[in-house]
Amino acid sequence: MVKMVNRCLPNWRHTLQKKNRPEIVIKGIPAAPGIAIGSAFLMDQQDFIVPERLIFDDEIPVEIARFEEAVAHTKEEIQLIKEKISAQVGSMDAQIFDAHLLVLEDCMLIDEVKKHIKAEKYSAECVFSRVLKRYVEVFARIQDDYIKERSADVEDVGRRVLKHLMGESRTHDFDQLTGEIIIVAHDISPSDAVTMYNKKILGFVTDVGGRTAHTAIIAKSLGVPAVLGLKDATLRIDNQDAIIIDGRKGVVIVNPSEDTVELYRQERDKIVAYEGSLENLQDSPSETQDGRRIVLMANFEMDGEIPAVKKYRAEGIGLYRTEFFYMNRLDLPTEEEQYRTYKRIAEEMAPNPVIIRTLDLGGDKFLSSIQLPKEMTPFLGSRAIRLCLEEQEIFRTQLRAIVRASAHGNVAMMYPMIAGPGELRAANVILKAVKQRLREKSVPFNENMPVGVMIEVPAAAMTADLLAKECNFFSIGTNDLIQYTLAVDRTNEKMAQFYEPGHPAVLRLIRRTISAAHDANIKVSLCGEMASDPTLAVVLLGLGLDSFSMSPASIPAIKRAVRSIRFSDAQELARQALRLSTGQEVEEFMVSELTKLAPDIYNYDGRKK
Q1: Top-level CATH class of 282-602?
Q2: How large is the angle between the packed helices 504-519 and 567-577, nearest 10 degrees?
Q3: Ranges assigned E (strand) in 255-305
Q4: Is 476 within 8 Å of 543 (Cβ atoms)?
Q5: Tens digit of pLDDT for each residue in 141-192?
Q6: Axis crossing angle, helix 504-519 with helix 583-597, rounded to the nearest 10
Q7: If pLDDT is split at 50, 70 and 90, which confidence band does 500 have?
Q8: Each residue's pLDDT tens digit, 576-586
Q9: Among this protein's residues, is 527 annotated catalytic?
Q10: Alpha-carbon Rg of the chain, whole angstroms?
């Protein structure tokens, strides 16, 4: 299945000394943060050579039976893998293998193989490999990056079936690996990745894949950096090459010079030392020096993140992204499945709040279970609340699960991408009907479950005073708010220089939103990447933000920033920042002033060299 190259690798420093090649910098997609310095371990994907073997009529039943037995063994194999990852990381992560099982339960695929065995009179492995190849080609032609990535699932399942049909053992023996290594591969299948748990893997580098790829999910669960989508990394990196991964910036450095290695080693050591210094703040309140209390919560996606949420003392889940439920599978999640998960998370976090965002698909996130038309501008098309209002059965199913879960903890719910009161009212009409139906069935739920609105488009910020009259809280999603305000596609690397979180237009919309919320006596949080930047966090604090929600690992740094300054000083800095002309001016001004007012913030903030 995979050819393992040179299992026992030398120390990467020895490799560096042996190489006499220039340093190469390759840019890819930052999929999991962190810095890793180590030796490349090249995984070479190896296809099966399937001989074309004709069979006699009386062998047809035997070949069909062999095929059915191989499928059954593969199901058992994948189920064991699923149980293993569920025990080690969490049931949500394990759901990525449901897609594999669904491939094996596809009646069209199974029946087509049997039909061709009978008609063509070739061996089961020969027919299956041909059918499999056609399926993979169909996936590859679909103009949807997420679905294209799922072709890896079909290929992975196919190799397992062929392994059983051909009596070959091509599993990967990672137990024989010695030393700390960085995996370099064209792609890494989910079942490959599972076998890497508890091994000395420092990071992942792949030619293909993106932020929705299984490799990214696994890397984050393992807590190791990953850079994906490098296109030709396996051609430019040799086995045993010394490499550096910077998962924050999506950079891989091959054959680094001694100076580069030393620079990154110092950077890595700073991160470790800085994180260690923040541990002393874990049990300290998130409070400014003059007594302003700020709630720090975590963004959350899957079960495996609960330990990190608790480790960093998050005061709740400020953004529970539910897309993962839908995206890593070929079917739709049931109401009961969602309810059990939401209930478990709510009970796990009680009495702290869990704010569940309803389905936010579209834009750069796609659902393979329903066929949506290809759009020229998907970020401006049918996505988030618009999609939910179109696909109301999917929406009602999720609403029923969330409302039922509200009986088991401090659950709140919010709608994404609301552009004004009209969409909010339309969503609430459906919610009202769902609640009434549950009452009729005597299903318990919290009648007073808070319902909020995400402020992610300028229209919502401009009508925040109207929206505040009809909801219980606001959550500002700055990733999209910046994108729509500045007309910048945040997924386009060429536009990176125009993506300015501190742009005066963005800050003014945030100020307007916070003011409208407080005038209506409701709270306002912020859950975009701005929340995890200490410099901009102080601006947001000064604008009057009530709470922040971010990746769990970012909480200690923001807590330090909050505790390092007076609220009155943050207010004055925010007032001055709003008078500036560009995002760059805002950031330079804030860094300059905070270096004088609160130098502890910049002991190491993870961004500066």
Answers
A1: alpha beta
A2: 130
A3: 295-300
A4: no
A5: 665 555 555 666 777 788 788 888 877 544 444 555 556 789 898 877 655 6
A6: 70
A7: confident
A8: 999 999 999 99
A9: yes
A10: 26
* Sign of the C-alpha dihedral computed for residues 89, 90, 92 and 94 taken in this order: positive
Check whether 330 has a pLDDT greater than 60: no
> What local confidence, expressed as pLDDT, does residue 47 receive?
53
Cross-strand pairs, 44: 3
Q: What does the alpha-carbon distance between residue 378 and residue 388 come to, in Å, rounded to a whole number?
A: 15
Neighbours of 215 (CB within 10 A): 27
CB of 70 closer than 8 Å to CB of 127:
no
Of the candidates 562, 565, 563, the one whose C-alpha atom is nearest the C-alpha of residue 548 is 562
Spatial distance between the Cα atoms of 34 and 175, rounded to a whole number of angstroms: 25
Taking residue 121's Cβ as centre, other Cβ atoms within 10 Å add up to 16
> Where exactly are the structural domains of the chain?
2-46+172-273, 57-166, 282-602
Kindly report, residue by residue over 256-314, the tens digit of the pLDDT.
999 999 999 998 888 777 777 777 788 889 999 999 999 999 988 777 678 889 988 99
The DSSP 8-state label assigned to residue 452 in this structure reads: E
Instruction: Please give the Cα distance from 411 to 356 (Å, whole number).
Output: 7
CA–CA distance, 271 with 266 (Å, rounded to integer): 9
Question: Which tokens go with 432?
Answer: 């009202």
- 328 pLDDT higher than 90: no
CATH top class, domain 2-46+172-273: alpha beta
Q: Which residues contact 378 (CB under 8 A, 6 or more apart)?
A: 362, 363, 364
Whole-prediction pTM: 0.66
In the block, which residue shows the tokens 């992975």? 156
Determine the Cα–Cα distance for residues 532 and 510; give it in Å rounded to an integer.
16
Q: What is the spatial distance between Cα 462 and Cα 443, in angstroms, rounded to a whole number? A: 38
C-beta separation of 16 from 258 below 8 A: yes
Q: From CA 505, how far away is CA 510, in angstroms rounded?
A: 9
* pLDDT tens string 525-562: 999 778 888 899 999 999 999 999 988 878 888 999 99
Find residue 365's DSSP bridge partners. Answer: 362
| Closest listed residue to residue 278, CA positions, set 553, 565, 595 | 553
Identify the active-site residue in 100, 214, 408, 503: 214
CA gap 64, 59 in Å, rounded: 9
Angle at 491 between CA 487 and CA 493, to 5 degrees: 95
If you search the block for the tokens 């037995």, which residue do you land on?
A: 69
Instruction: Verify whether residue 214 is a known catalytic residue.
Output: yes
Does residue 413 contact residue 452 with C-beta atoms inside 8 Å? yes
Instruction: State which H helix or E strand residue 185 sits in.
Output: strand 181-185
For the segment 434-491, what is each residue's pLDDT rounded down to a tens digit?
Answer: 999 999 999 999 999 999 999 999 999 999 999 999 999 999 999 889 988 998 765 5
pLDDT value, residue 378: 45
pLDDT of residue 602: 72
DSSP codes, 301-327: -SGGGHHHHHHTT-SSEEEE--HHHHH
The CATH number corresponding to 57-166 among 3.40.50.80, 3.30.830.10, 1.10.274.10, 1.10.12.10 equals: 1.10.274.10
Task: Write the CA distances from 461 to 423, 485, 501, 526, 542, integer angstroms.
Answer: 14, 10, 16, 13, 18
